[in-house]
Structures are given as structure tokens and as C-alpha cells.
Amino acid sequence: MESTFSSKPSHMNRETEEIYEKMDWNNLGFGLTPTDYIYVMESTNGGIFSEGTLKPYGNIDINPAASVLNYGQGLFEGMKAYRREDGGIQLFRPEENALRMQKGAERLLMAAPSVEQFVNAVKQTVLANKRWVPPCGKGSLYIRPLLFGSGAVMGINPAPESTFLIFTCPLGNFYKGGSAPMNLLIEESVPRAFPEGTGGLKNISNYSPVFSVAKEAKAKGFSDVLFLDAVDHKYVEEVSSCNIFIVKGNVISTPETLGTILPGITRKSIIEIARDLGLQAEERKVPVEDVLDADEVFCSGTAVGISPVGSVTYHDKRVEFKTGEGTVSQKLFDMLRGIQTGALEDKHGWAVRIC
Ligand SMILES: Cc1ncc(COP(=O)(O)O)c(C=O)c1O
């Protein structure tokens, strides 16, 4: 399957060209690397999206009265393109990201692209940037779709127009064979989300209010914080950018999604994969005690994949968990990554091959 966007970019973007020449594909990190093209599609005043376009990577113009800048009317998504062993490229469940963005847009009163427009735009953007998809096993191309109120408004109102934009960035593997387990701190005072709030959406304004608690935890040597529910302060919810699972015997459990936790696409896939592997998978309230008593704990998300948790600290008590070879999280990771990269049979039809 070849595409119109498969060749080297026709324009010469000096900045990305120089970066590309210097790429060390064996040692990809987690920083921002600009790639050749972004995709931009703007809605009309009536909220209709028509044709979008690919543009060279660069800054965008925005009106100072845009509602995203003033009122935080914005959403983002995170997905990845994976290089197969045969050199092809595939996406993982992209329609799920489209649907999640539509749900967020409904809440924020914004027009959103249709599932078809979203998936088509992602495919075009990845194909235009295909030389940036890392070799199989070295990482993946992170895809960041944004939807924001770009129309100018005065007064607390939704923008008349919104913009859908996609940029991409090659990223290394977060999970390196179990060698870097996360050490989490349970955050007791600041909740991330509230009942009837927007925790269940990828709303841009969910993230910066918890920068400070994550920063403090990192300064103390933790990888991240694990948030508790805002009502009882005793049930775990999720980490800043990933969902959480605990393993006890043959059962994996993860907090149920009732509006305060992001319904992760990786989380949803793990539940199905676990059942395929003969494990019992539960979505329920998970009290802190169950975490401390678990055999294993792991995080899930597009960026982290499946990342084992080596320890959880609560009230100055640090509890350690099994990680590495032979663990349930390793088995789930192998299965998930195998499906994402085309190395294993995809009986659910989750992979979308684009070239
Ligand atoms: C708060 C939060 N939770 C969980 C996730 C994991 O979701 P997914 O598996 O869809 O990437 C993310 C990342 O998107 C996130 O930002």
C-alpha cells in the first residue's frame, strides 16, 4: 500500500532536515522532536469540518481572544504509529481516540471531526512523516491530535470555530524489558478529578493543575504520583498520564471509570488481552490497601505502554512488588506490543495497517 505522502517531503524544512540527519535511532529518548508535517483542519462558523491540509511543521497563528487561550476550551489525544518487522506501519485502534475526542467535544461544546475524518487525518499525517517512524523495536511515532476553540470570543462562551491539528514526534520505548520499574507516591491531599468534573476526558485543563504535586514527588525521587478519589480519599484512581492495575493471583483489577478516570484505550485492551490469557479482569473500586497487598502493580497508557511499578509509597510506608521476567505485566506487555507491531496475531482486529 503506497501513498501520495510516502516520499521525502517536497519542501525543504532546514530545521527538521538537520534534526533528521542527526537522529540516533538506537537511543531515542522521550523529548520533543519536530517532524516534517502537521495536519490542520478548521471548522466553519456553523461547526462543520471539511477538508484539512498538511503543512510544514511550524508555529501556528492564533487570535489572542481564542477561547482555548482564555477559557481552556481544548482537548488532546495521544496515539502511536508502530513500525512492523516487514517495514510496514500500523496504528492501534485509532477510531477509539476519535470517539473519545468526540465525547470531550460534546462536553466542551465544540464541533469535532467525524471518526472517518479523524482517522483519515491521522493516516495522512503519519504517511507524510513516515520516515520518522522508528525502526521496529526502537520506539514509535507518537501522534498528538488536538482540538481547540480557535474562534475569538469575549465573554465566557464557546468559540464559534474550532481547529483540529495533528503533530507527531518519534519516541523511544518507555518500557525497557522491565529494567526501569516506576516508583509511585500516593498523593493524599490533591485529587486530580472530581465527580461530575472532566477527569474522564482528555481535557487540556486536567493536566497543569497537578504539575506541582508531580514535580514535588519527582524531586523526592518518585517517578510519579498515584491519585486518590476526591470524596473518600481512599480509592486509587490513576497516575498523571496513565491508568493503574493491580495483580493478585490470577486476577487483575483496575479502578472503574465513572467519570473521574480517563477510560484509557490501553486499559480497555489489556482487560480483553488478560481474559484471552485466562486471567480474571475486574473493574471496581480499588482501595489503597488492595494496592499495598498486591503481587504486582503496573501502569498502562499509550506513552508508557505497560510499565511495571516497583514500589508504592503511602504514609511513608514503601511496599515493593514483583517486576521483570515471568510477571503478569510482562506477559501482557509482550502480547500487547506483539499485536501493535504486527508480530502476533491480531484476532480482535485492532491494528490498522497504513502501508
Ligand atoms: C490521565 C490519563 N490516564 C490514562 C491515560 C492512558 O490512556 P490511553 O491508554 O488511551 O493512552 C492517559 C493517556 O492518554 C492519560 O492522560
Automatic annotation (TrEMBL):
Official protein name in the record: Uncharacterized protein
Organism the protein comes from: Bauhinia variegata
